[in-house]
Fold 4-carboxymuconolactone decarboxylase.
Amino acid sequence: MASDNPKYQQGMAVRREVMGDEFVDRALNSASDFTQPMQDLATSNAWGEVWVREGISKKTRSLVTIATLAALKASNELKGHVRGALRNGCTVQEIQEVLLHSAVYCGMPSGLEAFRAADEVIQAWIADNP
């Protein structure tokens, strides 16, 4: 079982720290038998191997992840990671600058989609954190 794996356990702790319990619980509780292996892989590998590494801060990892997801036009994942970046101490301006910088290199359609997705999360964040 994945939850017995130390990488999974460490990854789950970091995932909850960055993304928040509500987000993680929603992802895990909505997983089907088909999608559960992907949740396990993401938790063990992305969170339990890469996000736990030293060398760059979680804040920097958040900004790199935002740029990557913007390039991939992965709006749903981008929304989660924008919220995670805000939880990690990234400012709205830093997120905006990363998205602007990314748009130049990955194209305006990707940039526009990323800005729309990020704005939705940022506006909700501002409303919840006056």
Q: What stands out?
A: Residues 55-129 form a domain with the AhpD-like fold (CATH 1.20.1290.10). The chain has two domains: 1-53, 55-129.
